[in-house]
Design goal:
This protein is an alpha+beta fold and 620 residues long. The strands form nine sheets. It has a five-stranded mixed β-sheet with strand order 6-10-9-8-7, with helices on one face. α4 packs across α6 (95-102) and α7 (105-116) packs parallel to α8. The chain is globular and about 80 Å long.
């Protein structure tokens, strides 16, 4: 939409409004006209054009004021009725608009809140923040602006879980698989440190959280679900009661008030076999600034009607590489919300699943959910294929909740037979518990978000990275809200575009570092707190990765001007340590273990043929 059209539209709305207020024009009275609306400056309106100038002087219509004559308060009121992107464009048309918008920090704060659900602090530059958020929602460009291997986490695979805290203070990393096996540790770093390092290359490190209580059984590809959606979550009373229950069970010390809840569930052992259904709830205190985060783990007591002589409560299916998504109360029948667990594999990775288990938060009880119907898709003879290594993300459209399931596949990611990666997207309506759409992803480069990709919600979009037997390094964007609206219109099958986000490095042809393709990594989008995507760890076909990257998001190069391209970091070991390489090795019992071998010794083994690369054997 061109700027001139927007200005003309404003002017016509103003004239119609003035005429409705004043009534039909009878006598031209210029002096009274100028009193009807607040005026910035008086102009000479004695000269009019065309038929108006030739009309009888006593029958001239009242022309109405020009937009340039209105004061800042009235201009901001007009703009408050329109999206912020219109205001951004109109701002370029003249001094009056520019002055009103630059002085209206409250206007930009309201736009951030209503359009992006971003509640800003009094010190935030709201106009700049709106531009950043608009760039994330309309992302067209990006740049890799930070890379580090000295972040304090080491190398990790098996999907370490990255997420932003409930108040946007910290970026957290949970679990993953190291050379010591699967982990349940929690680390954090302030979000502002991540954001600042992306502009000034200032290094930072994760800090281990203070942990207590009983964690879930360790497992690879274990999910960690934050129990909040935006500013929604269980009630403060329920969170407090759950925290006190965990404290009584674990004899923990006094807890900080104002915390939030997380859920760890499932996972598998070596070779992604030996799946389990262990779970634990964590009471998380995020902490301010450099204050250390704290978490108390445990399993809350079930409601009273599940104890005593009541029958044994239902236990969820043993799963690994599943998805576990928090759904707030207003989208479900559960008073405090629930966690929907879908898919995964079981039976030592022999069977992929398409079933649901649901954890009701109000009484912490599990139930088996019936298979979702697919009424709208029955004519196409479709049913949801079993899968693992997929992603499931909650979106809200017109006040209703929908789960968007992307990709995944079947077959052990460590093997090369009877495997398949899916390049599809399915939409589940929570209100009717019905699959309402199923589509194939269409991309220019045959990109497939197969098993063990990452998907991050970013202001109505999904940012997808990696996954599959032959992963891509590209950041891809899927307009999930538009896919949902398409399904609601009754167009239930077909193709949907999956586009890549070009980075400045490729466009400029600069020889600067970029991350390699990967799967089983971790990722988190920091929006609305910062226009950044963070990816970490994973692997492709060999050793585990230890690199962490941040990717700045924007609609154009103007949005990226504050971010500098990352420079190659020299790979250095900690002082006094020998250069080591992680190597996956499978024993006769089928267990996969990671051994740290000196790089010089590994090179010697390769030269002598003692060991061979996996790709030399035709394996993944």
């Amino acid at each position: 939409m061109c700027v001139s059209f927007i200005v003309d539209f404003f002017q016509k709305v103003l004239q119609v409004s003035c005429n409705r207020i004043r009534g039909p024009p009878e006598i031209a009275d210029q002096g009274q006209d100028e009193k009807d609306m607040p005026s910035r400056r008086r102009t000479d309106t004695s000269t009019t054009a065309g038929s108006i100038s030739s009309a009888p002087s006593g029958l001239l219509p009242k022309p109405g004021p020009s937009l340039t004559e209105l004061n800042d308060e009235v201009l901001l009121h007009i703009l408050s009725l329109l999206p912020g992107w219109m205001a951004w464009r109109v701002e370029q048309t003249g001094h009056a608009w520019r002055r009103a918008l630059h002085s209206g920090n409250a206007y930009w704060q309201s736009r951030c809140l209503h359009e992006f659900a971003a509640r800003l602090g009094p010190s935030d530059l709201a106009r700049r923040k709106y531009r950043q958020l608009l760039g994330v929602r309309e992302v067209r460009r990006g740049v890799w602006c930070y890379c580090s291997r000295r972040h304090g986490l080491g190398d990790r695979v098996a999907a370490p879980q990255l997420f932003v805290g409930p108040r946007g203070q910290k970026l957290f990393s949970y679990g993953g698989w190291t050379d010591r096996g699967p982990q349940t540790d929690l680390h954090s770093v302030p979000v502002h440190a991540v954001s600042e390092s992306s502009m000034r290359e200032e290094p930072w490190r994760f800090q281990r959280a203070e942990e207590s209580g009983m964690t879930a059984t360790r497992g690879g590809v274990q999910t960690l679900t934050p129990l909040w959606f935006g500013e929604e979550g269980p009630s403060e009373t329920h969170i407090s009661e759950t925290a006190q229950s965990l404290r009584r069970l674990t004899a923990a010390r006094e807890l900080h008030p104002g915390g939030a809840l997380v859920l760890a569930f499932g996972g598998g052992g070596g070779g992604y076999r030996h799946e389990h259904n262990s779970w634990a709830v964590g009471y998380l205190h995020e902490g301010e600034g450099q204050e250390n985060a704290q978490i108390l783990w445990g399993k809350p007591q079930a409601c009273k009607d599940l104890v005593g002589e009541a029958p044994q409560p239902y236990q969820p299916v043993e799963r690994c590489a599943h998805s576990a998504t928090y759904v707030p109360a207003r989208f479900t029948m559960c008073p405090e919300g629930c966690v929907v667990v879908f898919g995964g594999h079981t039976g030592h990775c022999a069977t992929s699943l398409a079933s649901f288990d649901v954890l009701s938060l109000h009484d912490w009880s599990w139930s088996h959910a019936a298979a979702a119907e697919c009424t709208a898709l029955q004519a196409q003879d479709w049913e949801m294929p079993p899968r693992h290594g997929h992603s499931t993300t909650l979106f809200e459209v017109d006040g209703k909740g929908y789960l968007v399931v992307v990709g995944g596949g079947r077959g052990n990611i460590l093997e090369n037979w009877n495997v398949r990666d899916f390049a599809d997207i399915a939409v589940l309506c929570l209100e009717s518990w019905t699959w309402i759409g199923h589509y194939q992803l269409q991309s220019s480069g045959n990109l497939t978000p197969g098993r063990h990709h990452t998907a991050c919600r970013a202001l109505g979009q999904l940012l997808l990275v990696g996954g599959g037997r032959r992963p891509s390094r590209q950041v891809c964007v899927l307009d999930a809200e538009q896919v949902i609206r398409r399904a609601l219109r009754g167009d239930v099958q077909g193709l949907v575009p999956l586009r890549t986000v070009p980075d400045r490095l490729e466009d400029d042809g600069a020889d600067l570092p970029v991350p390699v393709a990967r799967k089983m990594h971790g990722a988190a989008c920091l929006a609305p707190y910062a226009p950044l995507l963070v990816i970490f760890g994973g692997w492709e076909t060999g050793p585990h990765f230890s690199d962490l990257w941040t990717f700045a998001l924007g609609a154009d190069t103007e949005d990226l001007k504050d971010f500098r391209a990352a420079e190659a970091e020299e790979e250095r070991e900690e002082p006094g340590q020998e250069s080591l390489v992680g190597v996956r090795m499978m024993g006769p019992d089928g267990q996969v273990r990671v051994m740290r071998v000196p790089s010089e010794l590994l090179a010697q083994f390769l030269r002598q043929g003692v060991v061979r690369r996996a790709d030399d054997l035709g394996e993944d």
